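[recover] target loaded
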Protein backbone atom coordinates (compact mmCIF):
# COMPACT_ATOMS: atom_id res chain seq x y z
CA UNK A 1 0.00 0.00 0.00
CA UNK A 2 1.38 3.36 -0.97
CA UNK A 3 0.04 6.81 -0.22
CA UNK A 4 -0.50 8.92 -3.32
CA UNK A 5 1.75 11.64 -1.94
CA UNK A 6 4.64 9.17 -2.12
CA UNK A 7 4.12 8.45 -5.83
CA UNK A 8 6.79 10.26 -7.84
CA UNK A 9 5.47 12.77 -10.38
CA UNK A 10 7.32 10.96 -13.21
CA UNK A 11 5.97 7.51 -12.22
CA UNK A 12 4.16 5.74 -15.05
CA UNK A 13 0.78 4.29 -14.10
CA UNK A 14 -1.66 2.18 -16.08
CA UNK A 15 -5.30 3.28 -16.14
CA UNK A 16 -7.87 1.42 -18.25
CA UNK A 17 -5.16 0.00 -20.48
CA UNK A 18 -3.40 3.34 -21.04
CA UNK A 19 -0.01 4.21 -19.57
CA UNK A 20 0.37 7.79 -18.38
CA UNK A 21 2.56 9.74 -15.98
CA UNK A 22 1.24 10.30 -12.46
CA UNK A 23 1.53 14.07 -13.04
CA UNK A 24 -0.82 13.79 -16.04
CA UNK A 25 -3.29 11.70 -14.03
CA UNK A 26 -3.35 14.35 -11.29
CA UNK A 27 -3.88 17.09 -13.89
CA UNK A 28 -6.86 15.16 -15.29
CA UNK A 29 -8.40 15.00 -11.79
CA UNK A 30 -7.86 18.45 -10.27
CA UNK A 31 -10.87 18.26 -7.93
CA UNK A 32 -9.40 15.31 -6.01
CA UNK A 33 -7.77 16.11 -2.68
CA UNK A 34 -4.12 15.00 -2.80
CA UNK A 35 -3.58 15.85 0.85
CA UNK A 36 -0.18 15.92 2.52
CA UNK A 37 -1.49 16.26 6.10
CA UNK A 38 0.39 13.59 8.13
CA UNK A 39 -2.50 12.98 10.56
CA UNK A 40 -5.02 12.44 7.77
CA UNK A 41 -2.56 10.30 5.85
CA UNK A 42 -1.85 8.07 8.83
CA UNK A 43 -5.57 7.66 9.61
CA UNK A 44 -6.38 6.72 6.00
CA UNK A 45 -3.36 4.42 5.74
CA UNK A 46 -4.38 2.53 8.89
CA UNK A 47 -7.96 2.25 7.66
CA UNK A 48 -6.82 0.93 4.26
CA UNK A 49 -4.44 -1.55 5.90
CA UNK A 50 -7.41 -2.97 7.83
CA UNK A 51 -9.54 -3.13 4.67
CA UNK A 52 -6.72 -4.90 2.81
CA UNK A 53 -6.27 -7.37 5.66
CA UNK A 54 -10.01 -8.14 5.53
CA UNK A 55 -10.48 -8.51 1.76
CA UNK A 56 -7.05 -8.50 0.08
CA UNK A 57 -6.77 -12.26 -0.08
CA UNK A 58 -10.19 -12.52 -1.76
CA UNK A 59 -9.23 -9.90 -4.35
CA UNK A 60 -6.00 -11.74 -5.16
CA UNK A 61 -7.82 -15.08 -5.41
CA UNK A 62 -10.46 -13.56 -7.71
CA UNK A 63 -7.83 -12.25 -10.16
CA UNK A 64 -5.72 -15.40 -9.90
CA UNK A 65 -8.80 -17.44 -10.82
CA UNK A 66 -9.15 -15.17 -13.89
CA UNK A 67 -5.62 -16.12 -15.01
CA UNK A 68 -3.59 -13.31 -13.41
CA UNK A 69 -1.36 -14.73 -10.72
CA UNK A 70 -1.41 -12.33 -7.79
CA UNK A 71 0.05 -13.43 -4.47
CA UNK A 72 -1.59 -11.95 -1.38
CA UNK A 73 0.72 -10.39 1.19
CA UNK A 74 -0.13 -8.28 4.19
CA UNK A 75 1.03 -4.68 4.30
CA UNK A 76 4.66 -3.96 5.04
CA UNK A 77 6.80 -0.84 4.78
CA UNK A 78 9.46 -2.35 2.54
CA UNK A 79 9.61 -1.44 -1.15
CA UNK A 80 9.41 -4.10 -3.83
CA UNK A 81 10.38 -3.75 -7.47
CA UNK A 82 6.92 -4.36 -8.97
CA UNK A 83 3.86 -2.77 -7.42
CA UNK A 84 0.20 -3.20 -8.27
CA UNK A 85 -1.93 -0.31 -7.08
CA UNK A 86 -5.56 -0.74 -6.16
CA UNK A 87 -7.51 2.48 -5.84
CA UNK A 88 -9.70 2.58 -2.76
CA UNK A 89 -12.39 5.20 -2.33
CA UNK A 90 -14.16 6.04 0.89
CA UNK A 91 -16.67 8.57 2.13
CA UNK A 92 -14.04 11.07 3.31
CA UNK A 93 -13.68 12.83 -0.03
CA UNK A 94 -9.90 12.67 0.39
CA UNK A 95 -7.54 10.94 -2.00
CA UNK A 96 -4.05 10.16 -0.74
Amino acid sequence: MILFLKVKISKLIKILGKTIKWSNFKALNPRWDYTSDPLKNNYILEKNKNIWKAIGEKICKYYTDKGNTIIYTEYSDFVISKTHLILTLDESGKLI
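[recover] notes: Residues 28 and 95 are 14 Å apart (CA to CA).
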